[in-house]
Every structure is written in C-alpha cells, then in structure tokens.
Specification:
By secondary structure, the chain is α/β, with parallel strands linked by helices. The chain is built from 21 helices and 14 strands. It binds uridine-5'-diphosphate-xylopyranose. Belongs to the UDP-glucose/GDP-mannose dehydrogenase family.
C-alpha cells in the first residue's frame, strides 16, 4: 500500500519506518529540510533502539522516502497519516495549527479518495475539525471528492516503540459508519493486517471514542503511578516497604504489576501533557475530573521528593558537596528530557550549592540544553555541573549518589564499588533500583522512595558502617515524607 506520513517526529518516524518494514511504500513529509536530508542519508534525529537500522534498510531498498514536497506527499499515499507535533500553548492547551495546516494541504492537493488518519494525540473532536478543513479546501478548489478522517491513536512507549508497533496490544481505529468511513476502515484493516495478531488486536469504534481512548489510557497509567508514589510517601512515614506492598497488591489479577513502580515522578512528552489536556477538556465540557487533577498535582510534588530527601540529609546546605546524579532522561532507553524529573533535581542540587557530576548513557546533550533553559538566569550554577562518560567516574569522591533514571547500567552498582569510590557511600535511589536491605548489610546507606525507613531501620544491623552513614537523620527523613 502507498502511505504518506506527515511529520517525522517521534510518532511519525516510527510509524513510517515500521510500515515500510512491513512492505508498504512510505513517503515521509517534513518541512525541516535539514532533518529530511539527515534521514534520507541514514542519520537519526532521535535515539530509539532498533529504529535507525529499519530506516536505513528501507531507504536503501527504496520503500521509505523523506521529502519536504507537500504536493508530492498528498499525491503519493492512499492513506495520509497526520503525525505532526501538537505542542502545549502558554495556557496549556494543545497548539493544533500544524494538524490543521496538514488537513488544508491534503484538501488542496488531493485528486482522488483519501483516508486521513489522525495519529497525533489531539483533543476529542479534532478529527471532525480536520474533516471540515479538508472539505472546505475541496470546495474552495471546486473538487467533489470523497474522503474519510479516521482516528488511530498511537500507544508507543519511547525506548520500546518499534516493538510496540510490530506487536501491539491493540490497534484502536475510530471511523465513521458511512460509506467513506467503511472504505477507510477496510484500508486500515489491510494496512495493519501483518501486526493484527489472531485478528484480535483491532478495536473499531466511533471517532470520538477513539480520541478519548488515547487520553483515558495515559490518564489511567499516570493515576496508578501517582497513587503508588503517594503510598510510597506514606510507607516512608510508617516504616513499610512499598516494593513489598507492590508485590502484594500486584499479584491480584484485578490489579496486576504494571505501572505500579514508585519513583521520582513520571515525565515524558505524554503523561504530563495528556493528563493536563484531559483535565482541561473536562472543565471546558462543564465537568471535572477531580481524581485526575489530584494525579497531576501529586506528580508535581513527587518530583521534589528525591531532592527533599537529599536536602534533609545534608541539612539543606550542599555547599562544598559533590553529588553524583545517575540518569537524566525521563526514562531509560531514550534521550528525551521532556518533563524529566532529573531537571528539577539537578537545578535544586545546584541551587543548594552542590557540585553535580552527572551521567546518562545517551541524553547528555539534551540534558545540557534542557538545563540551560531551566537555569537561564543563573549561568553561574551551570558552571558547577559536569558530565562524565562512565557511571563509575561520577562516583569518584562524591558525597552522595542520586539515581534518577533506571538505566540498566546502574543495576550493577555494588556496595564495594560505592565504598571504594565515594567519599561517603550514600545512595538516594529515586527508582528503587537497588536493594537497600542488602546495601545496608554491607555498610552502604540507601534511601529509596517508600523504602528509606527500611534501610535506616536495618542500618543498625550493618557491619561497622562508616560514621557519616550512621548520621542519616531519621527524624528529618520522616518529617519530610
Ligand atoms: C507513554 C505510554 O506508555 C504510551 O502508551 C503512550 O503512547 C505515550 O506515553 P512513554 O511516555 O514513552 O509512553 O513512557 P512510559 O514507559 O509509559 O513511562 C512514562 C513515565 O512514567 C516515565 O517517566 C516513567 O519513569 C514513569 N513510570 C512508569 C513510573 O514512574 N512508574 C511506573 O511504574 C511506570
């Protein structure tokens, strides 16, 4: 099948590359000529495991093309995916101007039946607006052509996007129940047939329900995370271990284990934006999503928890201290720094006077840009921020290490390494990656999220721990929870 993808951002690029890999001819349109040239030459504007190989192979084999030629892009694909960015405006609402520009261009240039697939995450009702714009352009150019606008939201996780596309849990398609809508649905069934395992992955529904499904999925996942984060903070106060609680409740199949990992708060381009957008949609529809509003504010608070634990330990003053920060991207296997919890943490450490030595396997440049933005008025603080190539180098002489992103590289940090390298073997584990009980028994204090009291309580059993480690202020950690 011939497919056009409008926008080679994260979603557009993964979708285009994977559809080409499945044997379709794919035309990817982007207005950024430099990006088009980079992709056409086999380069990669983002870090996503497995994507570069797929792009290179399909470009070489002639199934995947990148271009800035709008007219040619509309002429090419029977199916036109709109996968452009919808950045938040100052008031938090989604800026849909790129979606609407794409819709107008399709209407202006189309010369036969087209399926327009709304792939970007957009407020409920946007597909109807897209249809109106296509129709208006057709009329303005005196064309009487059929088309259908379909909602087909993406559920790709950064770091696992290729796998998510090739083996989806579900493929949601919202289509109108009219002749063009049924024709569109038939084309999408054909397009997705190779990944529609057992013919049971496709969920067909009306357009508005499909648009809402995307928000509902992310809102549900964000709710689980915020709920667990709040329980973790309570566990800190009670001396319970949130990891054991997670296992205890996750074993109930009605609850399940996924997305119950307490941590430093959720980030990324989707959860914060989509939760915010759904709250707004509810408000503008005359109702309220009180639970979701609380989810959002709980997450903002959670992003401070790790910093508060560090500050509480050092009495609020980090002057003369060196803090190692491991992991900067909002999650592993991505270089994405959007809404990353590390941003507030690093800024807070620097503002409290610390020298910060950071490591991230891939997000270093993006992190530097993000922090330059966040600390725009405080350039002197940036001078106290350095990066290292290896996690072990970050530990050298550090007063504490803070794990913010659970890259697999950090799972192997051992007590002996921490004791050998650091000035004080003290870990603040923002992703509950390490076993605080085991570390404590080997003389390393490890303060997790919802498990720090466990570590502190059992510290008493630790064999001859260094003096500073025993000085972990139990009262302060409790008070700040
Ligand atoms: C999410 C959705 O999972 C995906 O379906 C949608 O298409 C886009 O948004 P993504 O933002 O790539 O994907 O990352 P995800 O793996 O969902 O994690 C989001 C955030 O939640 C990360 O900051 C992660 O660290 C955090 N998280 C996740 C937790 O804090 N605890 C968990 O148990 C799971």
């Amino acid at each position: 099948m011939k497919v056009t993808i409008v926008g080679t951002g994260y979603v557009g690029l993964v979708t285009g590359a994977c559809l080409a890999e499945l044997g379709n001819d794919v035309f990817c349109l982007d207005s950024d000529a430099d990006k088009v040239a980079l992709l056409q030459a086999g380069g990669m504007p983002i870090y996503e495991p497995g994507l570069q190989e797929i792009v290179q192979r399909n470009v070489e084999e002639g199934r995947l093309l990148f271009s800035s030629d709008v007219k040619a892009s509309v002429a090419f694909g029977d199916v036109q995916f709109i996968a452009v960015g919808t950045p938040p405006r100052d008031d938090g609402s989604a800026d849909l101007s790129c979606v609407f520009d794409a819709a107008r261009a399709i209407g202006r240039h189309m010369d036969r039946f087209r399926v327009v697939v709304q792939k970007s995450t957009v407020p409920v009702g946007t597909a109807e607006q897209v249809a109106r714009l296509v129709r208006a352009e057709l009329q303005a150019h005196g064309k009487d052509l059929d088309f259908s606008v379909v909602s087909n939201p993406e559920f790709l996780k950064e770091g696992a996007a290729v796998q998510d596309f090739m083996a989806p849990d579900r493929i949601v398609v919202g289509a109108d129940d009219d002749l063009p809508g049924r024709r569109a649905l038939a084309l999408l069934r054909q397009l997705y047939a190779p990944v529609n395992r057992n013919q049971e992955r496709l969920r067909v529904m009306d357009v508005r329900s499909a648009e809402l499904t995307k928000y509902a999925a992310n809102a549900m996942l964000a709710t689980r995370i915020s709920f667990m984060n709040e329980l973790a903070n309570l566990a800190d106060c009670l001396g319970a271990d949130i990891e054991l609680v997670r296992q205890g409740i996750g074993s109930d199949p009605r609850i399940g284990y996924s997305f119950l990992q307490a941590g430093a708060g959720y980030g990324g381009s989707c959860f914060p934006k989509d939760v915010d957008a759904l709250c707004r949609t509810a408000q503008s529809s005359g109702t309220r999503l009180a639970v979701l509003e609380a989810v959002q504010s709980a997450n903002l608070r959670q992003k401070q928890v790790l910093l508060d634990k560090v500050l509480a330990h050092f009495g609020g003053d980090l002057r003369g201290r060196t803090i190692a920060v491991l992991g900067l991207a909002f999650k592993p296997d991505t270089d994405d720094m959007r809404e990353a919890p590390s941003r507030a943490l690093v800024a807070g450490l620097l503002r409290a006077g610390a020298r910060v030595v950071a490591h991230d396997p891939v997000a270093r440049e993006q992190a530097q840009r993000a922090l330059e933005h966040d600390l725009a008025g405080e350039p002197q603080l940036l001078a106290q921020l350095g990066y290292v190539e290896r996690p072990t180098s970050a530990l050298e002489g550090a007063d504490a290490v803070v794990i913010v992103t659970e890259w697999r590289h950090y799972r192997t940090l051992s007590a002996s390494l921490l004791k050998r390298s650091m000035r004080t073997p003290l870990v603040f584990d923002g992703r509950n990656l390490l076993d605080p009980h085991q570390l404590a028994s080997q003389g390393v204090a490890c303060v997790g999220i919802g498990r720090s009291n466990l570590s502190l309580l059992r510290e008493a059993d630790a064999p001859t721990p260094p003096a500073r480690q025993l000085a972990l202020p139990k009262k302060k950690v409790r008070a700040e929870s």
